[in-house]
Design a protein that fits this description.
Blueprint lengths: L9 H56 L20 H30 L8 H6 L2 E2 L18 E8 L22 E9 L6 E6 L4 E4 L2 E5 L4 E7 L2 E5 L1 H20 L5 E6 H10 L3 E5 L3 E3 L3 E4 L3 E5 L1 H9 L10 H19 L2 H4 L2 H14 E4 L3 H10 L8 E5 L2 E5 L5 E3 L1 H13 L13 H5 L9
Helix pairs in contact: 1-2, 1-10, 5-6, 5-9, 6-7
Length: 453
């Protein structure tokens, strides 16, 4: 190294130039080393992220399937005040270890199935990205009644779009039947205390006063700036056809006063793949179902396993021979089928079959769209409903006169409808909650229908 105070000659200048160059290289080396350290730290954080997601989801799932503090009916209980022999104590410990191991296995399987099928679908980001998000909600609407804190309301709409329909389905093509209407409308209400769930169906031909709505393009799933004027004495399914999910949500909130905080749309043309993905479902048929448009839907009676194409006809048939109720008979079949599909999906065989579950998720994502539907929301709801008895789930039809008017529309019974929705808002007993017959006239009057779930 040179001394800056020594006399400057040519050799000194050369040495100083070398010193300055070395200093610059040293500084550059230090900067590169610092950048490399930062890069390694980022890589370590990214490598730890999947494990953090796994731990977070595992914790949530643990809370969903966590054992009750008190022993269940199938769990061993210790006799109070009665001494046990060593053999009994050993057997007791073995049984308890088996129960604990079983619970741990369920948690592990659930986490593995949920977060990854092999390496095919690994994180909730992947899961959420599968669903097509379409704006539908207006949770600040003035039509919403006060309160309802903690309530969950799902508006479910089944579209009758013919996009992708095949000739075998016998429902027409997209060129023959343009656009999309809400072929099925259901409202699923889960109050904050999670002690019950109520699913209410609306006939597609229900006569309504449709609010002014933005025009909806069902092909592109987008809204335009054009506003379609309000209309009276029109069918319910026109609300979706004109204004899409937002318009349907707006009308439901105006009618019910309920705060819709989740919207799920289902394309029935694609939902058959969900049925095939789980190997079909079993429905109970009282008598053969033959439709004048779709032909023979189900020829057998009793518990009948049906697959995708047959299931699509089962939920769509509305011209069934011997069924003068049209929509009400179809609503009953749809409610029964949804219950059967949910039961099959939540069965041990599907949840622990990675390939089958992945096929179902892919089919579900392909056939559905919505607003505020994702892993976090569904996990939270599942956790809050873990103690709900299946017998506490009621299927109903919105109260109507049960007869079409001169315009061919179903007529809403306003007073009974207001009583029903106010009971939901207040979390009060439902009108007519005594045991009711399962005939369609009872359902038309708003009486809860018995569920087989």
């Amino acid at each position: 190294m040179t001394d800056e105070l020594e006399p400057i000659d040519d050799s000194t200048k050369v040495r100083r130039k070398i010193d300055h160059t070395l200093a610059r290289f040293s500084a550059a080396h230090d900067e590169l080393a610092a950048e490399e350290a930062k890069r390694k730290a980022r890589l370590e954080r990214l490598a730890a992220r999947p494990q953090q997601l796994l731990e977070q989801t595992r914790t949530k799932l643990q809370r969903v399937v966590a054992p009750m503090k008190s022993a269940g009916p199938d769990e061993p209980t210790r006799a109070v005040g009665k001494p046990q022999t060593r053999l009994q104590e050993k057997k007791q410990r073995k049984v308890e270890r088996s129960v604990l191991a079983g619970r741990i296995s369920v948690i592990v399987i659930a986490v593995l199935v949920f977060l990854g099928t092999g390496a095919a679908w690994g994180t909730k980001t992947w899961f959420n990205s599968k669903f097509n998000q379409i704006a539908a909600l207006d949770e600040n609407s003035a039509d919403i009644a006060p309160g309802q804190t903690g309530d969950e309301n799902f508006l479910i709409a089944g579209s009758d779009t013919r996009a992708g329909a095949t000739a075998e389905e016998n429902v027409g093509t997209a060129s023959e039947v343009e656009g999309a209407r809400s072929d099925t409308v259901m409202l699923a209400h889960v109050p904050a205390d999670r002690k019950r769930a109520v699913v209410i169906s609306f006939p597609r031909d229900l006569e309504i006063s449709r609010p002014a709505c933005q025009r909806f393009d069902a092909t592109a799933n987008t809204y335009s700036d054009q506003v379609v004027d309000a209309a009276t004495k029109v069918k319910l399914n026109t609300a979706y056809a004109v204004g899409g999910p937002r318009c349907l949500t707006k009308w439901v909130q105006q009618l019910t006063g309920l705060k819709i905080n989740h919207f799920v749309g289902i394309d029935f043309g694609g939902f058959k793949d969900m049925v095939d993905a789980v190997g079909g479902v079993t429905v109970n048929v009282d008598k053969p179902i033959k439709d004048t448009v779709l032909g023979m839907v189900v020829s057998q009676t009793g518990p009948v396993p049906i697959s995708g194409d047959q299931a699509l006809s089962f939920v769509r048939a509305r011209h069934v021979i011997g069924d003068p109720t049209s929509d009400y008979g179809r609503i009953k079949r749809q409610q029964e089928f949804i219950g059967a599909l949910l039961t099959k999906v939540m069965s041990h065989g599907v949840l622990t079959n990675p390939g089958q579950l992945t096929d179902f998720v892919n089919a579900f994502a392909k056939a559905t769209f919505g607003d505020n539907i994702g892993v976090d929301q569904l996990l939270t709801l599942a956790q809050s409903m873990k103690g709900l008895d299946a017998s506490k789930v009621s299927f109903m039809t919105v109260p109507t006169t049960g007869e079409a008017n001169s315009r061919g529309n179903e007529v809403l019974m306003d007073t009974k409808a207001k009583e029903l929705f106010q009971a939901l808002i207040d979390n009060a007993p439902l009108p007519g909650t005594t045991p009711a017959p399962t005939n369609t006239s009872a359902q038309a009057a708003g009486t809860p229908a018995k569920t087989d779930q």
